């Protein structure tokens, strides 16, 4: 998980202070039912929902913005809402001033304690990547090891751990990346992947994007096609997505930073 210096706070943020808003890319946008539609402007709600069901395979899982807001504010209306995303967002605990002052730590251990939310998290990724000819799921140490293996098994891909220096016992290939102060490396075993394979890179969170960029470079050096990066959480204020350039990024929950 990437270190992130984001908003400081003196009090924990309760789930009730978040508003969850699904975000659709333009090709995913479909019309929502209005009150008039429900009253007869469309043939019927049942007919509309049946058509939605038929189109489900063409609709990618939604991304979700989670913003701090007033406790009593209602959830914003959206075009299409996947109720699983709101539950996932609520299951993630936010701890202020950890591991140092000024950082809001996104704690996924509470998500792992919620078996329904944890399963829904894996299912959303699997629904997106199944049938995409992905042969490698590369998980970034350490929390990428939690989400990567079940996704890999479900889509029929192998799991490749990308580790910190001197953690892998065999011959390794490494890629250096910059930190706020100094540098670090990410490594994988030589021979773990082959040129021409298609990879998904996964971690629990993207902050500045440094670790994900290093993982992409490392895989591409040996001829692997990195199809997409995926994270449970994005700290969108730290512009990690921009650092990835044109490499696609899929996230479930956006948290303010």
UniProtKB/TrEMBL annotation:
Enzyme class: transferase
Location(s) in or outside the cell: Cytoplasm
Domain Phosphoribosyltransferase positions: 119-240
A GO biological-process term: AMP salvage
TM segment ranges: none
EC number of the protein: 2.4.2.7
Keyword tRNA-binding: no
GO molecular function: adenine phosphoribosyltransferase activity
Keywords, alphabetical: Cytoplasm, Glycosyltransferase, Purine salvage, Transferase
Family: Belongs to the purine/pyrimidine phosphoribosyltransferase family.
This protein's name: adenine phosphoribosyltransferase
Organism: Cucurbita maxima
